[in-house]
Amino acid sequence: MPSIKPIRTEKRVRTEKRAVGERGSTAMTSSSRPKLASHMRMRFDPVRQQHVLLGPESVVVLNQTGADILAVCDGRRTVADIVAALRGRYDRVIDEDVRLFLARLAAKRCVEICVEIDDE
Amino acid sequence: MSSPARRHPPPSTEAPPASRGDALRAAAQPVGLLAELTYRCPLSCPYCSNPVTLGDYHDELTTAQWQRVLAEAQELGVLQLHLSGGEPLLRRDLVELVAGARELGFYTNLITSALGLSRRRAEQLRAAGLDHVQISIQADEPALSDRIAGTPSFQRKIEAAHIVKELGWPLTVNVVLHRRNIDRVAAVLDLAEELAADFIELANTQYYGWAWRNHGALLPNRTQLERAEAVVRAARERLKGRMEIVYVLPDYYSRYPKPCMGGWGKQQLTVTPNGDVLPCPAAHSLPLPRASVREDSLAWIWALSPLFQRFRGTDWMPEPCRSCERREIDFGGCRCQAFQLTGDAARTDPVCHLSPDHDIVAEKVRAANERTGIRDGVLTPRPHRGHPSSG
Ligand code: SF4
Ligand code: SF4
């Protein structure tokens, strides 16, 4: 297809540069219920030995903590639940860090906030 | 919880558990592969960026050869696979290739005109694990869309877009903008909204291949662009959180060039229907040594071939790029555009206002603004199938 050449790059650049809070519904509070956006997929990349979050135009490399957080984002658990779940695994989980991480991904449209609890 | 994750460090306070988009850029591994499965196409868009020498690409890779290429790409670190063309649905083995690609872990993206995306084919692709579908339309209404596409196709595209959403895929609608359809941007956005697209790409034409041949008749004027941009700004506000609008600027009107492919041989590679490997889909036009999966491994081509090494990094750069603070931002622009406009691929992209050749672009822009009619100029459609024996 034709215009693929510039699109890929432009989008990538724009996605990475987009600031937190630039979009509307990305406010992430303790009661938000985040989940991966339907166009995103997380997997472990054996080549980089890291988890990656993949979309049609975006690639995000995650560290283990980031991957652990996203693994429990199911659209039912609240951010508070997620922090609690991670407390079992990590000595210290900073609520603020988790929220910031998720807000950033929400700003990139990688993560969505579920409004209704049982919309699956 | 006794998960092995316990061995991993907790998130530190100074550095939140953030995503690291930069890590990939630093790593010398490609992220995306554009697999141009065939240049055959039922459409004949005059802005098509396929090579004007379509006849050179009839000898297409076999299923087994593509499977080998994909396996090698996976080992090389490629994460996203864009299946494109031409029209990739014309490959009878598309479902098989998608299934294999998903087994290799790729995020698979089908870039299609949607002709040939019947419900049955769509269901097969869904079952094979295809992740995302991008459908191109040529305008918001049948008459203009079909005229630009060179064949009745609008209605079938709309039906296919509905099927894509019904099957639960995320949908991107792509519209290439030019002088003859850019005034329809508002209606195009309405259509995308009606189709419940997740993303819409409004991409101003980039002048390669057939588009370059037709650039005189395709380049919009400044008034057209300003109007379109105002519409896009308002729509972004209105559609926030529902549909993401990606607007690709027309680089002839920009101060700086685009960071083509995120840098030569840095993130992306393209494999053409006949097995040539390119740093970008337009690079076949450059007078550089060929690289082909028929002769060498993808790993060698990516890392060591003269083609991929030619413009990698910044050492090749002439002034003004060499000492410019933007050299790692836009990489001196597009090599193909530099070659096309100046005859020398190693010059600064003439789109850049700092380029000594910028007057070439300025002249084209001036000409586009002197012509008033939007239908001025002659458009040469690309040949429909680009393949004499295809059915
Ligand atoms: S003719 Fe149109 S649909 Fe076919 S490959 Fe070219 S741009 Fe795409
Ligand atoms: S001079 Fe070169 S590096 Fe600087 S902005 Fe122009 S194209 Fe980019």
Summarize this structure as a short list of keywords or feature phrases.
heterodimer; A: 120 residues; alpha+beta; three-stranded antiparallel β-sheet; B: alpha/beta; nine-stranded mixed β-sheet; 9 strands; binds iron/sulfur cluster
Beta-strand content estimate of chain A? 15-25%
Helix content of chain A: 25-40%
Q: Note the overall shape of chain B.
A: globular
Low-confidence stretches of chain B: 1-27, 387-391
Description:
The complex is a heterodimer of chains A (120) and B (391). With 120 residues, chain A is α+β, with helices and mostly antiparallel strands. Chain A has a domain of 73 residues. Helices cover 37% and strands 18% of the residues of chain A. In chain A, the strands form 2 sheets. Chain A has a 3-stranded antiparallel β-sheet with strand order 2-3-4. A two-stranded antiparallel ribbon of chain A has the order 1-5. In chain A, a hairpin with a 4-residue loop joins strand 2 and strand 3. The N terminus of chain A is likely disordered. A 9-stranded mixed β-sheet of chain B has the order 7-6-5-4-3-2-1-8-9, covered by helices on one side. In chain B, strand 8 and strand 9 form a beta hairpin. In chain B, helix 2 packs parallel to helix 3. Chain B is globular. At the A-B interface, helix 1, strand 2, strand 3, strand 4 and helix 2 of A face helix 1, helix 2, strand 2, strand 3 and strand 4 of B. Bound molecules: iron/sulfur cluster (2 copies). One iron/sulfur cluster binds next to loops of chain B.
Topology:
The complex is a heterodimer of chains A (120) and B (391).
Chain A: H1 4-17, E1 33-36, E2 41-45, E3 50-54, E4 59-62, H2 64-71, H3 79-87, H4 95-107, E5 111-114
Antiparallel strand pairs in A: 1-5, 2-3, 3-4
Chain B: H1 21-26, E1 32-36, H2 63-76, E2 80-84, H3 94-103, E3 107-112, H4 119-128, E4 132-136, H5 142-149, H6 154-166, E5 171-177, H7 185-194, E6 199-204, H8 209-213, H9 215-218, H10 222-239, E7 244-248, E8 268-271, E9 277-278, H11 298-304, H12 306-309, H13 335-342, H14 358-370
Parallel strand pairs in B: 1-2, 1-8, 2-3, 3-4, 4-5, 5-6, 6-7
Antiparallel strand pairs in B: 8-9
Helix pairs in contact in B: 2-3, 3-4
Bound molecules: iron/sulfur cluster (2 copies).
